[in-house]
Amino acid sequence: MPKYEPILLKNMLQPGYTGSLAEYERAGGYQAIRKVLGKVSPADVTAVVMKSGLRGRGGAGFPTGVKWGFLPKDYQGPRYLCCNADESEPGTFKDRQLIERDPHQLLEGMLLACYAIGAASSYIYIRGEFVLGAKILEQAINEARAAGYVGKNIFGSNTTIDIWVHRGAGAYICGEETALLESLEGKRGLPRVKPPFPATHGLYNKPTVVNNVETLANLPHILNRGAEWFASIGSPPKSTGTRVFCVSGHVARPGNYEVPMGITFRELIYEQAGGMRSDKKLKAFIPGGASAPFLTPDHLDVKLDFESVALAGSMLGSGGVTVMEEGTDMVWAALRLMEFFYHESCGKCSPCREGSSWLVQIMRRIVNKRGQLADLETLTDLCKNIAGRTVCAFGDAEVSPILSTLKHWRHEYVAMIHAAEAANLIRPEPVGAKQ
Amino acid sequence: MNVAVTTQPKRKPSFGDWLKTLTFYELLVGMKATLTHLLNYKPITLQYPHEKRLLPDNYRGMLALLRYDDGTEKCVGCDLCEAACPSRVIRVVSGEVPGEPTKRYSKEYYMDMTRCLFCGLCVDACPVDALGMTREFEWAVYDKRQLHLNKQQLLAIGDRSFPVREKRLELQHPNVAFFNVTFKHLPQKEN
Amino acid sequence: MPDQKPETVRLTIDGTTVAVPKGTLVIEAARRVGVMIPHFCYHPKLKPDANCRMCLVEVEKMPKLQTACSTPVAEGMAVRTATTTVDDAHKSVLEFILANHPLDCPVCDQGGKCDLQDFSHQYTPTTSRFTETKRIFQKEYFSPLIETQMNRCVQCLRCVRYCDEIMDVKALAPVGRGTMTEIKHFGPHELDCEFCGGCIQICPVGAITSRLSMYEYRPWMLKRADTICTFCGDGCRITVQTKGNELIEVNSAHGAGRNNGDLCARGFFGFHASSDADRLTHPLIRREGKLVEATWEDALEYVAEQALRLKLAHSADAFGGLITSRCTNEDLYVFQKFMRQVIGTNRIDSSARYGHLNGVQALRRVQGTHRWTIAFEDIVAANALLLVGTNITETSPITGLKVKEAVKKRQASLVTMEALQPAIDTLSNITNLALQHFPTHPAQFGNTVLGLTKAVIEGNLVDATLAQQAPAFVQRLTSALQGISWENLEAVTGQTRTQWTETAKILAGANRLVILVGNGVLRHPGGDATVTNLLDLLILLGKLDKPGCGLGPLAEENNDQGAVEMGAVAEFFPGPAPLDDQPVRDRIATVWREELPRTPGASLTEMLAAANKGSLKALFVVGENPVGTLPAEAQAAEALGKLDLLVCQELFLTETAAMAHVVLPACSYMEKDGTFTNSEGHVQGVRQAINPVGDSRPDWEMFSALSVLMGSPLEYGDAREILKEIRTVIPGYGLLGPTPTPPKVDQAVLSGYLTQGFAGDAATRYAVSQPRQTGDGSFTLMFVQTLFHSGKLSTHSKGLLQLQQEGFLSINPEDAARLDLADGGQVKVSNSRGAITTTVKIRERVPAGLLWFPEHFDGEAKQLAEWTIDPRTQIPYFKLAHVSLAKVS
C-alpha cells in the first residue's frame, strides 16, 4: 500500500487494468464530464479549476485556470485546445505512461477543458516517437467516438467536441507551445514571437489553450471531488495537488511516483525510489528534467514545490528527477546534456543556434583534454549571453547544465584542464592572431 | 623694469691671450676639421651605379604581386588596394577564374607607377598579403608609359624579389578553409 | 485609402519623446528620432520574426531585454538603446553570428554594402574568441542567375519570408536544424521560381547574390541612376548601377517608386538588353540592295531629300508613321509633331493600337477620362478585386503584388476570371488566392462578364439611386439580360449560375471595388465591349464614382498610356483629344504656330493596306517591327516592300529594319532622358544611365534633325525642353511622379452615357457571343506574355535568356497524357495556315483544351494565328489560333 493516495495513477495501478473505455467507466470514468455538461456553465468550470490552484505540469507551472481566463470572452470564431503530449525532455516519462496506460483519463480531461473554454476541436500533439501512445490514443478516441463521448452532440447534449491526434516529427522544440502550434499548422516547428500569446492568436490565429497531458488528466478528478479537496493536497496555497515525478538515474527503483507536492527530495529519492542503487553516495540530481539546473546533496531537503525549488536555484520543470551517484563525471554529464541541446536547437535565433554549437565544441575540447583555463570564462560568458536573449525558453534551458555544474563542480573542470596541460596536446589558436 | 647694471671690470689680457692672438689660434681651431680632411681624404659620395647604398630594413621600393609556394597568384581581386590607394595608382578588374567556378581573382591588374607615392597603404590593405614592397628602386625609364605595369610584370617583379613564398591560406589555418575556393561541380559563370 | 486619423502613442526613446501611430514597432519609432537599432531579420515589408536578436533594447519595467523589431509601442514606454546592457547584448549576439561566418569579405560581392560588416565594425573586436572549427555547408548549385553562399548566411530568413509573404512563390525554405540551418529551394534540381531577385535585394549579407554581376564590381565603384523599367506598364522605379559605361546591376530601393522596391525577373535581370552586342551602332543606308554603314549626315540628308521629293510628288498623306510605346513621352511627342507638322499627316500609329486603346476608348466613352480613376494604393486598400483576363503574375507582376498584398495582408476578397487553372507551381498563381475563380476560355470573357451582370440585376443588387436616375439604362440592360437564359450562358462559358450569384454578392458588398482588365480581354476580339460592360457593372453596383472604386486596364508596354496621351495614334491629338476637337486643335496650333492637318488618320492596318495598294509611299518606323510581329496574313512584308522610302529607327536589325532604305541607330531607355507614363497614369522620369551605345541617338533628336533638314525646324535642346512644351499642350503633365489624386469620373460624360450613350451598341454588347467555328482542330492556342520576357526586346538580354531561351508549348497534364506527350518532348502544332514543331512543357496552370506559346519567340509560330481586324476600332487581333496537335517521335 503506497504511502500517498495515487490519483492520476490510481487506475493503472490496479492489476490487470488495460485502459479500455469499459474499464475506465467502471472505475468511475466519464462521470465528471456528465456532471458538468450542460449543468455547470463553462465559466464556472474555469472558476473551479482556478480555485483548485492547479498549475501547469509541463514545466512552467502557470496556473491553468488563469490561462483559460486569458481567452477573449467575446470572440465569436472557433477556439482550440491543444494537448501537449510532445514529451521529449530527457528524464521525463510521465505523460507517456498516462497516455499509454489510461488514455480515457486524458480524453475526459480534454473534454472538460474544451467545454470550459468553448472549443469544438482539440488536438493531441504527440511526440513522433510515441508510436504506441498514438495508436492507443487513436483507439481510445475511436471507442469514445463510437460511444458518443467524442464528436457531435456528445453525451446526447448539443455540445460538439472533437479530438484529433497529431504526431510530431521528432523535434524537441515542438514541446514549446508556439512551436507546437506552428508544427500543428503544418509549418516548420519554430517558436513564435510572444506577444501575441496563443490565448489570443494561437492555432490558425485563433484563441488557443495549450495544456500538458498531466494537467488535463487532473481535471476529471478536480471536478469529481471538488476544488477544495484538490487544494488541500500538496503544499497549498501555491502548489496544490499531486505530481507524477519521474525518478531515474542511479536509484534503486527508477520509475514514476505520484506524490503530493511539498514532500522533500530526500523522501522522494530515498523512500519512494528506494535510495541509491549502490552504496555510493548521491552526488547530484536534476530536479525537473534536463533543462533544470543541477542540485547537490545540500538541497535534498528542499520541498518539491514550485517555489522552494526555484528558491534553491533550480526549477521543478517537468518533474523528471535524474539522480547521479558519487563518481559521476560532472563535466561529462554537462557535455552529454549540452550535446542534446545542440542537437535540438531549432536554429531560429542566433544566440541559441550559434551558441549551442560553440558551447558543445568547447565542452568537447575540455573533455578531450584540450581545454584551457580561459575556456571556463568563455563558457560562463557565452552562457550568460544566451540566457534571456532568445525567442523561447530553450536558450535559458540549454545553458543550465553548464552553469550549474560550473557553479558546484568547477574543480572538476579545472582538474580536467590541468590534465590537459600535462598531456600538452596542440590547441587551436585564434583566427586573426598573426604570427 | 629695474635692472641693476653692473659693469664687469675689464680683465687685463694675459700673456696667453696675447700669444693666441698672435698665432691665429682660434682660426686654426675653426679650421681643424678642414685641415684634417685635407690630410686624410676619404670621399662619402657613393659612386652610383658602381657602388650602392645599404638599404634600411623597412625600405619601400617597387611594388610587386606575390604568389603562394605552389605558384598560384595570391591576389583575389578584392579591389581593396584600389580603394586604399591615395593617388589612384591601381586599377583592378576582377572576375571568376577560368575553369575554377566561384573562385575570384584579378582578371587584370594595373599600376601606374608614375603616380605612386610608395606609401604602402595598398600593402596594408591587402587581406591576403598579395602585395609586397620590394627593395627595387632602379626604375628610371625613357618613356613613362613603361611605368604603367600590368599584372604579368608585377608578378615577375614579385617572383624575382620574393623567392621564399608562403603556404596557401587554407593550409595555414583550418578555419579559413572556405576562403575563395573553387567548386568544380558548378558551371562556369557566363560572361 | 482610409481617411480616419490613426491613434497616436507617446513614448520616450533615449530621452527623446516621440508620438507615433498605435501599432508602430519600437524599431520604427526609434528610426523617427534618428536612433538606428542594429538589425538583420527586421524589414519593414515583412512580418516581424525576431530571430536575429540583434535589435535587443531595454524597455523600462520589463525584466528582460526586448526585441525592438517585434515590440509594438505602448503609451508611456521608455526605451533605452544606448546602455551598457544593450551594447553588451549587441556585442554578444554579433559574436554569435560571426562565430561561423567565413569572414571572406574580400571575395564577397556584398562587401562594402553589408549590414554584418557594418555592425561588426561598430560592435566587435578584430579578433574572435571562437577558436573551434567553423561549420561548413556543402556548396550546391542554385541557379544560373542567383548565387548562394550559405556559409555567409545569418539565418534571418528574410529571403524565405519575402518569397512567401510578398511574392507568394514559396520557393525558398530553411532546411536543417540548429546551426546547420541553411536556405534551400525545393526539389533536386536548380532553383525554379519567379526570379524576382527579391531574395538578393533583401539579403542583409552576401549569402544570396546575383550571379549575373558576380565579382564584377565593388559597391563604391558604382554610379547610380534612378530610372523607370521598360518591360511592362507597371512603371517600376529601378536604380541602374554602372561601372564606367558598363551595366552592372539593377535594383530598387525600398520605398522608392510605384513598386516600393519590388521587382520582377524582367526588371531585375533583364537590363543587359541594352548592352547586347547586336545593337546597331551606325546609321545604315541601302546602297545597291545592301545596307551599308554611313555617317549620320549622309543618312539624314538622304532621308530628308527623299521625303521632300515624295511629299512634292505625292501628298502628305502618302506618308505614314509607326512608333513603339516603349519610347519616352518626349520621343512620342516629337514623332507625332514631326508627322503632323513637318510632313503634315495624321497617318500615325503606335503599339498602343494592339490593345491598350480598347481600354482607353471604353474609359473615355463611359467615364470621360482616359486614365484610371484608381491608383495602386486603391488596389491595396480594396475590399474586393475583380481580375479579368490579366494573368497578372506574368504580365504585370508588380500590380500583381499589390493584389497579393490586398488579399494576403488586408484580407480583400479576390474574384478572378482568368484563362488559368489554380495550380501550385513554381510561379505564383493569382487564382490560388481567389475566393471565387472563373476558369474562362479566352474567347468567353465577354460572356462570363455578362453572367455576372445578369446575376447582379437578378439578385436585386442594382444601386437604388441609379434605378431612379437612369431608369432607361437599367431597364435596357435588364431586358437585354433577361433575354439571355442562364442555361445558354452556362453552356457557353462552362460556369455555374450559383458561382455568378455568389460573386455578385461579394462584389456588391464591397465598399471599395477595383476591377483590373488585362491583355486576355484587351487583345482579343470584343475587348472594348467587355471593358464597357465591366464599367456598366460598376455603374449598376453604384460604385463607378465611389472613392477607391474603379476599373483599370493594364498596359502591356511601359508607355502605352503615354503613347495615347501624346497623340501618337491615328485618332487622337495630344491630350488625348479627338481629331475633330476644334478647341484643342486651336490650342495646339497656337503652341506649334502652325495649322494641324485636317485629313483623317490611319491606323497600322489601314497604313499597311494603303501601302499594299500603293497609295502610301513612305513610312517612318520607330522601334516597331510589323514584319516580325504580325502574322503573314497581315501582309506586312509585302506592303513594306512596295514603299519608296522606309526609315527605321531601331536598336537592333529587326526583320522590318532589314527591309528599310535607311536604318538609324536609336538609344535604348538606359541611354536617354525623358518620361514614361505607366498604366495608372503616373508620369515618371527616365534618366540616362550609360552613354549611348555606338553612334546611337535618342529618337527625338533624329526627328529634330530631319525637321531642320526638311525646312521646318523642331528644335529642342534636351528632353526637358520637350517636356516643357508637352506641359503647355497637355494639362496632366504639370507634375512628374505620382499624380496627387487620380482623375475623377467626368459626371457630364457619365450622365450622357447613361441617358443615351450606352444605347448605340447595347444590343450587340448584351448578347451572347458565340465562339467562332473553325475547322482547325480542338485546341485553342494562345500567344501569351511570359514572366521572363517582354516583347522581343528582352530576348536580347542574356540574363533572361538563361531563364527562357526559346518558345515552347505549355499544355495541361491531362491533355498531354491523352496525347502521350512527355515534358520536353516534341510536338507538331498545325492548322490550315501552317505547322510548326516545338517542345512541350507540361504545366498544371494551363486549362484543359488550351495551349500557350510565348509571343516573344513566335517567329515561326505566329503564322498559325488568326488575323482579325476590329472594323470599329481598327485593332488587329492575332493572339489566338485553333490548332491540332500530333506527337513527334
UniProtKB/TrEMBL annotation, chain A:
Keywords: 4Fe-4S, Flavoprotein, FMN, Iron, Iron-sulfur, Metal-binding, NAD, Oxidoreductase, Quinone, Translocase. One of its GO terms (molecular function) is 4 iron, 4 sulfur cluster binding. It is an enzyme of class 7 (translocase). Signal peptide: none annotated. Residues 331-376 form the NADH-ubiquinone oxidoreductase 51kDa subunit iron-sulphur binding domain. Its cofactor is FMN; [4Fe-4S] cluster. The keyword Nucleotide-binding does not apply. It catalyses: a quinone + NADH + 5 H(+)(in) = a quinol + NAD(+) + 4 H(+)(out). This is NADH-quinone oxidoreductase subunit F. It comes from Nitrospira defluvii. The lineage of its organism: Bacteria, Pseudomonadati, Nitrospirota, Nitrospiria, Nitrospirales. The gene is nuoF.
TrEMBL record, chain B:
It is a peripheral membrane protein. One of its GO terms (cellular component) is plasma membrane. It catalyses: a quinone + NADH + 5 H(+)(in) = a quinol + NAD(+) + 4 H(+)(out). [4Fe-4S] cluster 2 binds at C85, C116, C119, C122. Its EC number is 7.1.1.-. SUPFAM superfamilies: 4Fe-4S ferredoxins. It is found in: Cell membrane. This is NADH-quinone oxidoreductase subunit I. It comes from Nitrospira defluvii. The gene is nuoI.
TrEMBL record, chain C:
Residues 222-278 form the 4Fe-4S Mo/W bis-MGD-type domain. Binds 1 [2Fe-2S] cluster per subunit. It catalyses: a quinone + NADH + 5 H(+)(in) = a quinol + NAD(+) + 4 H(+)(out). Pfam families: Fer2_4, Fer4_Nqo3, Molybdop_Fe4S4, Molybdopterin, Molydop_binding, NADH-G_4Fe-4S_3. PROSITE patterns: 2FE2S_FER_2, 4FE4S_FER_1, 4FE4S_FER_2, 4FE4S_HC3, 4FE4S_MOW_BIS_MGD, COMPLEX1_75K_1, COMPLEX1_75K_2, COMPLEX1_75K_3. This is NADH-quinone oxidoreductase. InterPro entries: 2Fe-2S_ferredoxin-like_sf (IPR036010), 2Fe-2S_ferredoxin-type (IPR001041), 4Fe4S_Fe-S-bd (IPR017896), 4Fe4S_Fe_S_CS (IPR017900), Asp_de-COase-like_dom_sf (IPR009010), MoPterin_dinucl-bd_dom (IPR006657), Mopterin_OxRdtase (IPR006656), Mopterin_OxRdtase_4Fe-4S_dom (IPR006963). NCBIfam families: NuoG. SUPFAM superfamilies: 2Fe-2S ferredoxin-like, 4Fe-4S ferredoxins, ADC-like, Formate dehydrogenase/DMSO reductase, domains 1-3. Residues 184-213 form the 4Fe-4S ferredoxin-type domain. GO terms for biological process: ATP synthesis coupled electron transport. GO terms for cellular component: membrane.
